[in-house]
């Protein structure tokens, strides 16, 4: 259930303060960004949550909060090809815990897994979401068979079995990337706490 506007505004401000300075992005860099607003959806243990970022007939990413024999497990699964998350391989496939302002586009999802571990205690030692507060999952997902890019902000405490989906956004322009934390201009000055270096990277890529 969505919270009232005053609580949502307070949480949004807290996310921004925690991550760093808020920087505006104007013009085409943010015009096509679609943002969920603050949601704070808690996934119960032994459960999962589908997210439909663009509101079409298809869910885009499945986020898991399971309990296995080895303990609490959190993971991500992009439902349709050519979807994938920003991630890496280190014996197993892992999702990268992105920071505000990190670039999400074809260059950063290239070679990434469609199914990735986020946290599994000591069982998956390279996992980056064991204790993550407002970290970002970057993803590529299809709309009408064409790649789009987005982010999902999450807060995870693996030891406690806690998994909260804070909010999400995607770029509705086919093939166009975005920065982790980037939102439409009226919502919060274009970026939720992305630094100037991230803004510069986005602008350089648009010019190229």
TrEMBL record:
Domain Ice-binding protein C-terminal: 182-205
Source domain of life: Bacteria
Native source organism of the sequence: Botrimarina mediterranea
Pfam family, one: PEP-CTERM
Name of this chain's protein: PEP-CTERM motif protein
Classification via InterPro entries: Ice-binding_C
